Amino acid sequence: MRKKPPLRVNRYPDTVLPGDKSGPPALPYPDGWFCAGFSDAWQPGATHTVPYMGEDLVIYRTESDTLRATRPYCPHLGAHLGFDGKVLGEEFQCPLHNLRYATDGTCVHSPYGPAPKLSLPMLPVQERWGIVWVWHHHEGGAPTWDVAAGLTGLDNARDPVYQITDLCGYPQDVSENVVDYPHLTYLHGLINLEVLTPPKYEGPFGWVTMKAGRRIGPAVVESEFINQFPGLAGANINVSMPEFGLYSVNWLLATPTGPGRMRYSLASSLELLDPPHHRGPAYEWLSHKALRALQYAIFWQTKKDAARDLGIFHHKRFATPAKLASGDGPIGAHRKWSRQFYPPADSQAPDAYDAHRKL
Ligand code: FES
Ligand SMILES: [Fe+2]
């Protein structure tokens, strides 16, 4: 893995009133797998604390490469494990009394007596496509679906370049933004938009494919966009560019950090559409370098595009019920599908605000 500064996070500036000051939070934290960061930020032995659903989450990687996520407070006397907690081989040591916890969360060592019967409050975590996914359930339930189960075309996706921004908004904003068709033209400047297959939803997944063009100088470059929704984690947008022999895997990922706030991760990786079968080490090295350079160039444009959305997300209010106009995208159908991710009406979850029931 390459070295890079861990978890560089931008904070979106307030230009006008930020969305979280526009009223009480409109939506509770949804259930599902959400991005907690990117694999390359966790070298073996590394620990980072990230905000996740109103609390901190301490994520660490053991020396033998096992990634673990735990809520931050030591069950012994409450020290924050992200403040000087450390990985020792396969165990995690709390900074206050040096109790050590195994990867299943069990306390396995005390420096001054038998290990007490304590367990860290671990959360399910997995790594896919270079992304760290953490499971959230409003009552602490175990995962009911796998983030990879409904997504296709990602077999070679790995090692993305990415940009992380903290701002106001909800994963719902990011997810339904993809089916807000008119904004693709009026905010992002795409032309000749054509929905090839309308949104289809099955369980926690959704898919929609479209075709659109972009003016680059005098030329119009047409691309096909395969959009996939892994729950309310955001969107995976795969862009096929057959004239260049390239396939770009993009992620717009939104993770709630606190009421009305989210961490937005934009990530992208690039592949050859039709790689040759026999690849020697020199080819691998050259193509990796060339692809990486191209990946950064394409990501520059992706970031420019996303910046338009970020300003909108940060300052908007979540409109519910939406007052849709003729020609709008299928926001209603998308919201109907989204309801499954929110705590039910009788939930005792502390974040189960009411407003989302009008979705
Ligand atoms: S508070 Fe963590 S070891 Fe005591
Ligand atoms: Fe957008």
From TrEMBL:
Listed A to Z, the keywords are: 2Fe-2S, Iron, Iron-sulfur, Lipid degradation, Lipid metabolism, Metal-binding, Oxidoreductase, Steroid metabolism
> For the region Disordered, what residue ranges are annotated?
1-24
Query: Which co-factors does it depend on?
Result: Fe cation
State any single GO MF term: monooxygenase activity
Q: Which species?
A: Streptomyces albireticuli
The protein, known as? Rieske-type oxygenase
| Summary of subunit composition and partner proteins | Homotrimer. The two-component system 3-ketosteroid-9-alpha-monooxygenase is composed of an oxygenase component KshA and a reductase component KshB.
Under PROSITE patterns, the record lists: RIESKE
Which residue numbers delimit the Rieske domain? Answer: 33-134
Q: Could you mention a single GO BP entry for this protein?
A: cholesterol metabolic process
What lineage does UniProt assign to this protein's organism? Answer: Bacteria, Bacillati, Actinomycetota, Actinomycetes, Kitasatosporales
Q: Give the top-rank taxon of the lineage listed in the UniProt record for this protein.
A: Bacteria
Query: According to its UniProt record, what is one Pfam family this protein matches?
Result: KshA_C
